[in-house]
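F.,

This is the one I mentioned.
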């Protein structure tokens, strides 16, 4: 076991830069701190993840190559979208590097036109929470919901109510794919840090009968709310974002 004082200081410095407050399996489970198999042996030993990864150390460049090989072998664009979404959920640094260095091939997958199909299939491909869901029933408590968001220094917020998604009509809560995809590009191409981005789904129901009858639908199963009640929710959300 490596116990060099200089090594401990070096890794501690890296931990501070990454914002780490824990060690062990939590480092690997956190997409912001996870480096996949790029952790060196000394890092694995000091961070308490030695043995939790295969023994081979792969640089980010090698992981990028492996991911691109898998990407090109996917049979459809939707499969490529799912692959990238999974990578974003596991290893943010690798995800954003791949997107930023392969803009021509990644743009149509991360955003239009593939994101439209991904929204239509959102209930099927949804894996883990990403963003904030605010419903019409949360009126009067929107600030409390925003306070549940773990990040403090949010710089970019993208909101949708899912009513008009890329000419596909009312997709309700399935429209969450739009702010997620748009903010991914803000990071990859605009330099906005991932933790400074907040996608928000304003769920006020849907008038899409197919979605209301869809067992995979993840949103409110009610007709879309309109009029003054809707306007009040939007106003409350805007005020809450400004105060937060």
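My design for it:
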């Amino acid at each position: 076991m490596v116990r060099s004082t200089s090594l401990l200081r070096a890794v501690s410095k890296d931990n501070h830069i990454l914002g780490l407050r824990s060690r062990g399996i939590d480092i690997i489970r956190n997409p912001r701190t996870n480096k996949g198999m790029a952790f060196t042996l000394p890092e694995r030993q000091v961070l308490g993840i030695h043995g939790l990864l295969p023994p081979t150390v792969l640089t980010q460049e090698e992981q990028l190559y492996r991911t691109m090989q898998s990407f090109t072998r996917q049979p459809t664009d939707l499969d490529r979208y799912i692959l990238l979404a999974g990578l974003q959920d596991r290893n943010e640094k690798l995800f954003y590097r791949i997107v930023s260095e392969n803009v021509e091939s990644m743009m149509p997958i991360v955003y239009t036109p593939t994101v439209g199909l991904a929204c239509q299939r959102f209930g099927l491909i949804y894996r883990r929470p990403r963003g904030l869901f605010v419903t019409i029933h949360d009126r009067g408590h929107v600030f409390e919901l925003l306070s549940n968001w773990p990040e403090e220094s949010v710089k970019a917020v993208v909101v949708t109510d899912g009513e008009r998604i890329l000419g596909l009509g009312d997709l309700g809560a399935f429209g969450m794919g739009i702010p997620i995809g748009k903010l991914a590009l803000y990071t990859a191409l605009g330099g906005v840090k991932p933790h400074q981005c907040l996608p928000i789904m304003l769920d006020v129901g849907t008038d899409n009968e197919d979605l209301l009858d869809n067992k995979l639908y993840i949103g409110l199963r009610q007709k879309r709310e309109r009029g003054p009640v809707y306007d009040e929710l939007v106003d409350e959300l805007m005020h809450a974002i400004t105060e937060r």
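The mean pLDDT is 91.

Talk soon.
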